[in-house]
Each structure stands twice: as C-alpha cells, then as structure tokens.
C-alpha cells in the first residue's frame, strides 16, 4: 500500500509530505507482521505568504472568529490538496492519504489534555486525489487519557526498540518533543519550545523573509543574556513529569514580551534570539542527562540550526548525537513519514498509540476516514507490527 503523509507542524511555515510504499512480510496477519517502507518521494512546500500571515494572525493568544476558522479550514485544506495531488502524480498514484492538517489549538489544563483542533478540510484532499483520507488523528488518543502528543513516539519505538541501553529520538519543531526507549519501557513528552519563540521574534522584528533564523545567522550576532535565560528556565512547565504536552498556546510572542518586560531593561534583539536558542539547548540537554540517554537521534527544523545541534553535542559529551537519518527516517521528512505510517495502520485496523508515549490508558486506532472517489474498501485487518524498517527509494 502506498500512503501519502501530510503535516504542517507547530512552526506553521508549510506542508511536509512523504509517500511511503509499505510492504508486509509473509506471515499471519492475526499474529502481527514485519513492515518495511520505501520512501518514494518527499517534499516541503511553504505556505503562500498571505495564507501564513492569516494563520499566524488567528493563532492564540490572538482573538479570531468562527468565520475566519472556517475560511482557514478551507484554504489550508485546498493547499494540502494541491501538494497531495502533485505528490500522487509524481509517484503514479497512492492508495491512501493521511493528513495531520494544521494545529491551531491544543487544550491543556494542568497535567491533562482536554481537546485539540487541527484544520485543513480533508474532503478537499479526497476530491483532488481520489483516495481515502485519514485525518483528525490526535483526538482519539485524548479520549483515552492521552495528550494526543507526541504521536511520533509510535514510530520512534519501532525504530529504537532493538538498541541496547537508553536511546531517544528528539524532534525539534516549533515545540521540542522526545521519546525515550530502554529495557524498562518507553515514555515520551513535549520538552518545551524549540523554534517557536525564535520564529516569533524573527517575524515580529522583520529580520528576514523566511520567518526563522536560517543557519542561526541572527543568533550568532548576539550573546546569551543569563538573567533572561534563568527566568525562562524557571517556567513551571519544565517541572511537570511526563507525559505532558504544550504548544504555542503557552510559548508564543507575548510570552517572550512578558519576560522582557519583567527584566525592566532593554535587551538587544540579537541577544534575545541567542538566549532563546540557548533555552532549547539547556532544556533538552537537562532532560537527556537526567534520563541517562546514550544515543540521541535528532530530527525537525531545529536540527539544521548549528547552534542548537553543536550546543547539544557540547553539552552532552557522553551521548552520541546523530541525525535521524541513521535510523532510516530522514531528519527533514520524519513527521510526514510518521503520518504515512499512521495512515497505513488506520486502514489496516492497527493501533498507532504507544500508551507510554502519550499517556493514553490503552491503544486505539487513530483518525477519521473520508472516502475517496469510489466506495471505501478496507484491506485485511492486521493484529499489529512486530518490526519496521525504512529505506529511501533507489536512484533511477
């Protein structure tokens, strides 16, 4: 089964897509199967500037209207559909699509997630591609006590389970999340902000047209402000125990501005951005050391920030820090590959939740299915996965 995975993450800068050709081993579906996946194609398509600007303007803590939410739901759905149609045509068609859409709100109170909202109407994708679309994948996890995040823990566990010692997978998107795997089991959680706060400052001050600090060019011109960093590290979120989740409902531009106001002095913008970059390094390194992690595979946009990656390696001399490519999941495409895997699991009746990863009480099959052009025909039900291997398609 060829499945197309689509996602726009917490950096809300564009749509990541990957087509994975999944093949099961010969065996009994009732006992679980070995699954191999070949990544046929992957891409990242930026949102149109005007669409991204509207999305940013509607996100918390800003106020918006139901009319704006409805319009963004359609416009983002159409943008996803355009990318999906191009990717499907590139590989000669797909059997199913799994779309995460765009998170616009994640409702957390204390230690509990109570709801989540992703927009990007999947019917537009089904209409353009003609294949069934799995969507709205997070909420089922929340209904059984999970945080709806980080769902990538399901993929991480499959990729890390054979390693000795304590290993982890770290994703540095707008929010950083980590999956820790050892012989004692698995747990996963959102660590804190990765790119979210830096991106917000870059956009607010118009420092470039990209909306992020490419190659840490701005941060390199500043220095860490120790007092600001100390104040930010004291955020109560970091003291919560996993499982836990957070988002831009907490870590946003106004959050930075409130900390700056509390300092009562002028801090150069470059110093603020350098400090926010160091905040990511410190929070991640602190948790990695506390967990005794010996192997750390990093993915997400933040892994392309040399100050973050080099900072982690310097702060973690006893940890092997590599890109997720070494696990067969390219660092830039890992989340889209995850969505393809979740789509495959849903279509085959397989749970894509690891309870220790999200805090869910029990595994559940994720998502809602929108039929394609014809009748919805489900494949054979499979008990579960015993292993997963990933590889890139051979060059032609």
From TrEMBL:
List, alphabetically, the SUPFAM superfamilies matched: Actin-like ATPase domain
Keyword annotations for this protein, in alphabetical order, are: ATP-binding, Carbohydrate metabolism, Kinase, Nucleotide-binding, Transferase
| Top-level taxon of the source organism | Bacteria
Q: Which Gene3D superfamilies match?
A: 3.30.420.40
Keyword ATP-binding assigned:
yes
Top EC class for this record: transferase
In which residues is ATP bound?
9-16
Pfam family membership, one: AnmK
Q: Which chain positions lie within coiled-coil regions?
A: none
Biological process (GO) annotations?
1,6-anhydro-N-acetyl-beta-muramic acid catabolic process; amino sugar metabolic process; peptidoglycan turnover
Which E.C. number(s) belong to this protein? 2.7.1.170
Give GO terms: molecular function aspect only: ATP binding; kinase activity; phosphotransferase activity, alcohol group as acceptor
Function noted in UniProt: Catalyzes the specific phosphorylation of 1,6-anhydro-N-acetylmuramic acid (anhMurNAc) with the simultaneous cleavage of the 1,6-anhydro ring, generating MurNAc-6-P. Is required for the utilization of anhMurNAc either imported from the medium or derived from its own cell wall murein, and thus plays a role in cell wall recycling.
PANTHER family assigned: ANHYDRO-N-ACETYLMURAMIC ACID KINASE
User: HAMAP family, per this entry?
Assistant: AnhMurNAc_kinase (MF_01270)
Name the UniProt record assigns to this protein: Anhydro-N-acetylmuramic acid kinase
Native organism is Microbacterium keratanolyticum
List the top taxonomic levels of the source: Bacteria, Bacillati, Actinomycetota, Actinomycetes, Micrococcales
Q: Which gene encodes it?
A: anmK
């Amino acid at each position: 089964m060829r499945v197309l995975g689509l996602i726009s993450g917490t950096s809300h800068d564009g749509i990541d897509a990957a087509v994975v050709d999944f093949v099961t081993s010969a065996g009994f579906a009732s006992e679980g199967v070995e699954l191999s996946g070949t990544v046929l194609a992957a891409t990242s398509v930026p949102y149109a500037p005007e669409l991204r600007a509207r999305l940013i303007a509607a996100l918390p803590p800003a106020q918006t209207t139901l009319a704006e939410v409805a319009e963004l739901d359609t416009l983002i759905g159409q943008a996803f559909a355009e990318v999906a149609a191009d990717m499907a045509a590139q590989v000669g068609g797909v059997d199913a699509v799994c779309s995460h859409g765009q998170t616009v709100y994640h409702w957390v109170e204390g230690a509990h997630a109570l709801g989540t909202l992703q927009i990007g109407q999947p019917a537009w994708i089904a209409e353009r591609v003609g294949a069934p679309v799995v969507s709205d994948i997070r909420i089922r996890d929340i209904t059984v006590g999970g945080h709806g995040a980080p769902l990538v823990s399901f993929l991480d566990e499959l990729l890390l389970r054979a390693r000795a010692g304590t290993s982890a997978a770290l994703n540095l998107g707008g929010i950083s999340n980590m999956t820790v795997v050892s012989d004692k089991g698995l747990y996963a959680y959102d660590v804190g902000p990765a790119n979210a706060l830096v991106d917000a400052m870059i956009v607010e001050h118009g420092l470039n047209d990209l909306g992020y600090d490419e190659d840490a060019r701005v941060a390199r011109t500043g220095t860490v402000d120790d007092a600001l960093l100390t104040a930010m590290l004291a955020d109560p979120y970091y003291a919560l125990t996993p499982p836990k989740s957070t988002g831009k409902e907490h870590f946003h531009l106004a959050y930075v501005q409130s900390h700056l106001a509390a300092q009562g002095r002028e801090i150069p913008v470059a110093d603020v951005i350098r400090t926010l970059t160091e905040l990511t390094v410190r929070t991640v390194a602190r948790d990695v050391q506390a967990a005794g992690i010996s192997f750390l595979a990093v993915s997400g946009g933040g892994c392309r920030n040399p100050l973050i990656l080099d900072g982690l390696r310097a702060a973690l001399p006893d940890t092997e820090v590599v890109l997720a490519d070494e696990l067969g999941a390219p660092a830039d495409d890992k989340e889209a590959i995850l969505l393809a895997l979740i789509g495959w699991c849903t279509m085959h009746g397989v749970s894509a939740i690891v309870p220790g990863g999200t805090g869910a009480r029990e595994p559940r099959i994720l998502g809602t299915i929108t039929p394609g052009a014809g009748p919805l025909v489900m494949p054979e039900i499979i008990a579960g996965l015993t292993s997963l291997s990933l590889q890139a398609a051979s060059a032609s």
